[in-house]
## 1
Amino acid sequence: MLRTTPLHDRTAPLNQGRNWRRWAGFTVASSYELSHDREYFAIRNSAALLDVSPLFKYHIAGRDAARLLDRVVTRDVGRTQVGQVLYTPWCDARGKVIDDGTVARLAEHSFRLTSAEPNLRWLGDNARRLDVRIEDVSDRTAALALQGPSARVILERAVERDLAAVQYFRLTTGQVRGRDVTITRTGYTGDLGYEIWMDATDAIAVWDALIEAGTPYGIVPCGILALDMARIEAGLLLLDVDYVSSNQALIDAQMSTPLELSLDWTVAFDKPQFNGRLPIRAERERGPEWRFVGVEVDWVSLEDVFTSLGLAPRLPTQAWRTSVPLYDANGIEQIGYATSGCWSPLLKKYLTLAHVEARYSSPDTPLQIEVTVEHRRRRAQAAVRRLPFFNPERKRA
Amino acid sequence: MTGSTRERYDAVVIGGGHNGLVNAAYLARAGRKVVVLERRHVVGGAAVTEEVVPGFRFSVFSYVVSLLRPEIIRDLELPRHGLEILPLESTITPMFNGDYLGTWADHDQTRQELVRHSRRDAEAYDTYGRLMHHMAMAVKPILAMVPPDPTSLAPSDLRGMLKFGRTFRSLSRTHFHALYKLMTMSSGDFLDEWFETDVLKATKSASGIIGTFMGPRTPGSAYVLLHHYMGEIDGAFRAWGFAKGGTGAISTAIANAARAAGAEIRLNAPVSRITTSNGRVTGVVLENGDQLQANVVVTSLDPKRSFLALMSEDELPDEFVQDIRRYRIRGSSGKVNLALHELPDFTCLPGVGAHHRGAVSISPSMRYVETAFDDAKYGDFSRKPYMDIVFPSVIDPQMAPPGKHVMSVFVQYAPSNIRGGWDAAKREAFGDAVIDAIEVFAPNIRGAIMHRQVLTPQDIEDITGLTEGNIFQGELALHQLFFLRPAPGWAKFRTPVRGLYQCGSATHPGGGIMGAGGRLAAIEIRRDGVR
C-alpha cells in the first residue's frame, strides 16, 4: 500500500470521486470534488487548503549548517537573515540541476530544506568535515498550504494575530489551537499564500482550525489538479515534468542547468564555492543553449484548426504533462518542446511552459506548436511570453 | 552393420538444450537439413519441466528466465510457438531478527521498504540502478556480437575490435571506470562502495555468485552481478520472469519453432562419437550404432564433454586440448524441488502474500553468504547455504494440483568435487541442510512437504550431462569470457576441426537461458558457407 499523509483521516472522507494520485510514495487527492473547477477558483478568489505533506523535509543544524547549504544550493544562504526563506535549485558538479526547493532559516544555525526527491545522501556526501547534523524530518513534519486572496485573513484568525508583517518569503512561528506551527509566506500557486509546518501529530487539529476559521471566507480543500493549473500560471517548474533531475537522467540531453531553466536569478556567482559553480559560470560566459519560457498558444490560430474540421475549439480541462513539439514560426524546424500546459480560466489564455533554443527565447518570438485534433497532428501559432503569466500584486503585498 | 543406419544431413546438432534448439531453428530457417540429437526423452537440457510427482510439475534445473535474447524471441516467433513469460516481480530476504528486506516492482514501494533499513541506501539504490542500466547498455551490443580476436589482423577481427572499442568509447569516464571495477572487483567490495545495509549487500552480492565457485568477496564476482543485471524483458533490463509451464516450456517453444522450420529432433539419441577425417568433421555415431553424416556438426555440450569425451585427443591440436583441460567448470550449486500441500509461512511476513509471487533469497547477511562459501572452499556443501527460492505454482497455478504448490530452491554451495564424492547419504544430508536452513525462516516448511527432489551437482551432471553440474557450462570469470570463451583463438564458435562448431553456454556470451550462442553459431556457420 502507498502511504497516507497525517491528514488522511480528514482528506479521505472529503474525496468524493476517490480520485487519488501519487506523490513521493503517498496518496494525495487529485481533486476532492468531482470536478476540480471550484478548487482552482478558490486559489484565485478565496482560499484553498492543500495537504503538501509528501514534500521531503530536512532539518539542517549546527555551526556549519549555512556552509553546507552554501556548498549545495546555488543561492547565497550565508547572507540570508533568520526568518528568511529562499527558493533555490541545486546542482551536481557539472552544474546540472538535481532538484529544487526552499531553504528556510529557522535560526542562526538551523535550517529547513524542502525538496521534491530524497536528498539525504547528497547532503551527507557534501557534509564531510563540517559540523552539521542533517535529519530527515519528512515523516514527522506535516505541511499544509493555504493559498489565495483570503489566505491571510483566515490564517490570522487561526493564529489569533496579525500577519501583515510577514513579508513574501519570510517566516514566523505561532500557535494554532495551542499547537506550535511555523508559517512561511510561500507556496506553489503564485498567489498570496502561506505554508504551515507542524508536527505530524498536530496536523489534524491545525486542519480543523483552518477549515473552521476559513469557512466564512469560502475556504476550499484543494487537490493537485487545481494546483497544477495555478503553478503553470505562476510559471513554476515541476521536477520530473518540466525537467529531469541529473540524478535520474540517463543521457546528458535530458539534464538542464539553472541557466537553461531560466533560473539565472537563483545563481549567486559571487559565492566562493558551490556545486557546479565553474561550469555554470562558463555557461554564463558563452550563453546557455536553452531557455525555459512561457509559450502562449494563439487563440485565433487554434480556433482555425478546429473550425476547418467543423468543430468548435476544444480546450484541455486539466493541465497536461506531456512533451509537445514547438517549431519555428515557419513550422520548418523543431526548436523546442513544451512540457506542461493548461487553459487558464482566469487569464482566458492557453498557456504552456516550454524549453526553447536560446535564440527563440525572447518575449513575443513567434513559434508554432503541435496540436492534435481529430487524431491528426496540426500546428497552431504561438508566441513566447515572459513568466510568470500571472503575477498579482497581492502575492508580495 | 546390422540394424544401424547411415543418413546424411546438412547439419547435426548435438544436444537438445535451448542453445542446440535455437541453433537448429536458425539453420533450418536458412534451408539446411538439420537434426538435433538429444540424449534424454525430453528436450531442454537444463531447461526442462518434468512431472516428478503426479500433478506436480518442476522446472527441474533452471527455473527463471531473463536473459533469453529478444532478437531470438522475435526471429523465431516464440510467443506464437507457445512462449509466455509471466512477471516475477519481487525479492524478499528474511533476516535473523525477524525482519526482512524486500524489493518490489513498484518504485515507491521499494523506496518505502529500503527507507526502513537505510534512507541513504534508498537513495543510493536508484543511482546504483541507473549505473547498472548504463553498464548493461554498454555490454548489450557485445552480447549479440561474435567476439573478435584482439591478436588477429584479419579485417573481420579489426572491424570487430573497432566496434568493441566504440562501445567503450561511448561510455563516459565514470561509466568506464565503473565497468572496469565490475570486471575486476568482488561483488562484496563493489557493493560496499554503494550501500551500508548488510542484508541488502548480501542479497545483491548473491547474484554475483550464482553458478560460480566464488564467494561474494572473491575478486571477479562483480561481473556475474552485471551478467544477471543484463537480463531484459521487453527491452527493460533486470526484468526476471517465469515461463508459463516452467522453463521446459521455453525449450518446447524453441523446439516447436525449429520443427516448424523443418528441423528434425530425435529424442533418446545419445551420441557416442564425433567422427572426423583429415581435420574435417564427417558426422556422428550414436550409441545405438547409427551413423549420421554431415559436413557440419554443432555441439551444444560443454567443451570437456565435446572435445575430451566425444573425440579422441589425436584429432585435435595439443594446445587446444590443454586449453580445454584447463577450462574452469567447477559445479557449485544444487537444486531442491519440493511438492507442498501448503506454502511456507515466513515468520517475517506471516501468511500467504505478495512475497510468494516473487523470489525469496536466503542471504540474511554478508557473513552468512561468505561462510556458506567457506564450507565449499574446503570441500563440503554449505551447512547454511545461500538459496534462491521461487514458487512457480503461485505464478502459474497449473504447475501443481489446485491448492497445492511447487517450490524451487536453488542452493549454493554444493561443490561438485565434494570431499569423498557425492553419494545417497550425502545427498540426503544436503537436502536436510536445505530444509533446516529454510525452517529457520519458515517453521512450517518441514510439515508442508509432500515430496522432495534433491539434486546434487553430480545428479545434474548425470541427468543433463553438464560437466560437474555447472549451470553455465563453465564459470563466468573474466579469463573465460568474450574472446577467451571457451579457449583463446576459438571463441568464434568454430573449432580446430573444420565443420565442427560449438554453440553452448560455454561459448560467448555465456550462461543463462540466453540462446545467444545458438544463434551466433548459426550465423557463423552460414557465413562459412559449409553445407
## 2
Amino acid sequence: MKTFEYASPNSLKDALGLLSDTWGETEILAGGTDLLTSIKQDVTAPRLVVSLKEVKGLSGIDSKGGNLSIGATTKLKDLIANEDVQKHFPGLVTAAKNIGSAQIINAGTVAGDLLQRPRCWYFRNGFGLFGMAGGKELVPDGDNRYHAIFGNGGKAKFVNPSSLAPLLIALGAGIDVQGPKKERSVKAADFFSTPKTESEREYALQANEIVTGISIPLSGKKNGIYEVRHRLGLDWPMVAAAVAFDESGGRIRNASVVLGHVAPTPWVAERATAVLNGQSRKAGAQAAGNAAAQGATPLSKNAYKVSQVKVAVRRAIEAV
Amino acid sequence: MAKNAWPSADRRKNIGARVSRLDGPVKVTGVAKYAYDVKRENMLYAKILQSSIAVGTLTEVDTSAAEKMPGVVAIIVQKDGQGNLPKISYAGDMVATVAAETEEIAMEALKRIKVSYEAGVPQMDDKDPSKASGRDQKKDQGLDDDNLSADEKLKQVFAAADTVSEGYYGLPIITHCSLEPHGQVTEFREGELYVWPSTQNVSGYANGLTRSTGLSADQIHVDCQYMGGGFGSKFSTDKWGEVGAQLSKQTGRPVKLMLERDQELTTAGHRPSAFANVKVGVKADGAITAMEVHAWGSGGQRRFRIPPTPYVFTKIPHYRTLGQSILTNRGLTRAWRGPNHPQAALITMSALADAAAALGMDELAFFKKNVGLTDRAEVYAEEMDVAAKLIGYREKAHLRGDKTPGPIKRGLGMSIHTWGGKGHNSTCAVTINPDGSAVGRMGTQDLGTGTRTVIAIVLADTLGLNVDEVRVEMGSNALPTSRASGGSSTVGGVSTSMRDASTNALNTLLDKVAPELGVPAEKLEAWGGRIQEVGKPSNSLAWKDACGLLGAMAITEQGANPTSDGTNLTTGGVGGCNIADVSVDIETGIVTMNEYVSVQDVGLVMDEKTAESQLYGGAIMGITYALFEEGIYDPTTGAMLNKDMEFYRLAGMGDIGTIKVHLMRGPKYEDRGVVGIGEPAVLSQGAAISNAVANAIGVRVPELPLTPDRVLDALSKGGVA
C-alpha cells in the first residue's frame, strides 16, 4: 500500500475542489468497501483520498416531483429499510439484500454500488483492466468462466459488478452528477460505458465529478430482479436479470429487461423487451428469456451463463 | 493398584461424556493468543516478496532502493543451497523478505525491490495424461494366470462380466486455506531463540531451525498454545520460519512474519488433483468382479501418487490400477486431511454408483451386496443401516434420475471410507502435589480439535477428579516430547501416554495411602474425588487428604505411548458411511444441500462432544470441496487467479444444509481402544455428494467441485433435463 493523503471536507464544493481531473490521482471514499480493497490490491494508488463522510446533504431518501431521490451516500441498509423503496421498488430491496454480506450492506453506499470497479480476477491480480501480460490478452485463452457473454468483442471482457444498476436502468432512473462548474443528470442507461484504454473508467463520469444522487421516476411500474447465485452468503451473482413493466388487462406494456454480470456494462436486453410488450406474463416470460440470450458471444468457459440468462429473465418476470 | 487399561464403562466419568472444550471461553473472548497475536517489545514486521513468474530463474534482485527507505531494517534475498539466486517453480515462490518498523513500510519496500527474471513457459495442464512423466505406478490383483498374460486375463474378466460400466471422474487442486495463516514470531535473547509459531509439530519444530540459525535444538524454545487450523500443512518450519529466525538474529530484534491471505493460498499448501478413467465389471446380481483404474494428477512440482484404488473394496477379485504423475508449476503439495483418500473415494465410489445405476440397482443395496469385498464388512453393514435410517433412505430413495416434474431434482448418494488413526508416539509426565493439585505435561499441540480437553479428561478420570480439578500444560518443546499431529494420530497417542503417566502417578500415591486405609494398594481405587477401598466408600480418604500423606515431596511419573508395561490402549483402522441428500436446479445448475449424514466408527470415544464436532467440521469442509473449492490458475502466466476468499469459495452456514452425525458406540467398538477421527470425518463428502447429484439429475457430473457450469454441461449431454 502506497502512503496517501487523506482529506475530509465538509462541503461538496470543497470536495470537488480537491479532486484531480485524472483518474487514479485522487479517489473518493464513501463506504470504502471497494476502495480499501482496491488500494490494498494495488488496483489504484491515489495520492489523495477524499472522504465524503462529513459532506452534508448527500444521503437520505425523499420523494419529490414524481421521483424518489436517493442520496449518493445513502447506506444500502437504509435503502433496504426505507418504506417508499419497499413499496415502489421491491426489486431494489432484493438486489441490495442479495449482496449477502451484513458488513457491505451496513457500510456500503448506493453510489458506491454503481461506481465499484470490476471484480475480474485478472484486473484484481495486477494484469490491468483488459487482463494483459507481455502484450497478450489473457482472458480469451484463460479462465473466463465469470466473464462477459455480451459486449465482449473489444479488449474489455470483465463484467459490471453493480447490484442496483440493472434495475435502475430498467426503471428509467437518472444519476445526478456535480462537476467543478456544473451539475448534470445522466440517464442510468447512459451512465455506464466500456473503457477502451486502461486510463478510462467504466462510467460516463469525469474524474473531478461526484455522483450526488439517484432519481427514480415513481411510475408505478412493477419491478423485480432474479440473481443466479452460487453461494447464499457473500458472493457475486453469475447472472442477474432486472425487469420493470406495466401490466393491465393481463398484458405487459412498457417493459424493460436489463441484465447484470453479463457484459462490461449493465446490458439492456432490447430483444427481450420487444418480445415482452403486449404479451401475457406467462407467455412472455419464457419468450423474453430466450430473446434476452440471443446474440450472446460466450467465451471459452462461460457458455453456461447464456442458459442462466434465459432462466433469470423468465424467473424475474414470473416472480414480480 | 490402578491398571494401565481404559476404565470399565461404570468407571468412566468424563471419558466418552460430553465435555465442553476447556479452551472455548478463552478463544471466544479473545484471551487466547495465537502466533498472529504475539506482540513483543521492539518487534519488527516482515513481509515476503513473491515471484510474479511461474517458472524460470531469478537473474537479479536489486534491493538498494528498498534499503534506503526509512524504517526498513533488514532484507534477506532467497538463495539456493549453493548460494545462488533460486530457480522459480510457481507464481508465488519466495524471492525476498523485508523486515521494517511497520507492516506498511515493509509492504511498500517490497514494491521497491527490482527483480529480473529469465522466465520460462509454465506447464499448468494437469488434465492431459500425455503430459505425465516419471515411472508409471502399476498394481494388479487377481490377474495371475498360468495360460494368459495379465492383459489377456484382464480382458477375459471384463468379458465375463454381465455389465461393464465406464466413467471419468476428477477433482482439482485445492488449498488448505487455514483460518490462521502460516508464520511465526521469533526473538533472540541471550544467544537463544524463542519462537511462537503456528505449528502442528511443537516438539519437532526446533529441529528445522538448527541449520539456518547455527543453534542446537535445546537452544530453540517453541511455544504454540493455540492454533487456527493446519489440516496437514503446518508440520515444517518452512522457508519463512528460517528467514524469520535469520532476521531476528541479524537485527537483534523480535520479528513477526506471517503470510498474507493471498500467500496462504498460493504457497502454504495444496491437495493434489486426481483424474481417472474407471471401468467396473459387475454380475447381473450386483456382485463386482473387476475394476480398472487409470489415474493421473498433479501435486505441483512434487510427484503425484496414485490414490489407493479400489478404495475400501480392496477384495475386488480382479483389478488393475495405473497411476501417472504430471508436474505443474503450482505451489507444492502438502498433506491434506486424509492424504489421497478423498480422491480415492471420489474415483471409486462414483464408479461403483455408476455401475449400480447401469444395472438399474439401488445404490445402497449395491454397496451392501458388495460389503464382503471390504476389510470391515460387519462395521460397514451396520453403519449403512444407521446412516440410511438417519437420512430416511427408504422414504426418499429412487433409482437414478428424479422423475418428478419441475426444475428442482432431488437425490441421495453415498460413500464409505476408511482410515488408520492409531496413536502416535508420545511421552508425558504427571505431577501430583501434596496439596492435591495435579498437572499433566506434554509437548503436544491442539490444532483446535480438542486435544487439550482430551488430555484433561484422561488425567481427571484416572485420578478420580473432575476435569476442572486438573491442569494440562502443553504447546511447548520444554515439555516431554510428543509427535506431530497428523493422520488422526494425536488423540490415540496423547490419551495413551497420559493414561500411562497418570496411572503410574496414582499407583505411587496409592502405595502411600495403603497403610493409612489398612488395605494393600491393589485394593484401592481413585473415584469420586476420593481414594477408597475398591467399591467401598466407607473406607476412604478425600483426595486432598490422601495427597497430604505425601509430606513435602510431590510425585512425578512418566508415561508414554507405547506404554511402559506394553499395554495397548490405542488401535487403528476404522470405517465410516456418509449419505448426502441434495437438490439440483437443472435450469441454473445450482446444487443445494438438504441433509448430510456422517456415521463413524472411532473406537473408544474420549469426548463425545469434540468427537461429534470433528464430524460436523469434516462434513462442512467436505461439502466445501464438493461444491465450491478449487484453485484456479491462469494457463498462460501460471498466476493463481482466486487467491482471495472472494473467489476461493468456502461454504457458508447457508450452504451446508442440515448435518447429522453418529458415532458407533458400545463394547464392540469401544473395547478396541482409542482411534483418531480427524481424517475419517472428511473423506467421503466429494463422492457422496457427487453420487447424490447423479441420482438427482440422472447423469454424472464428472468433476468436482459441482459448480453450476459443470452441472449444466453434464445435463447438456443427458440426464433428466
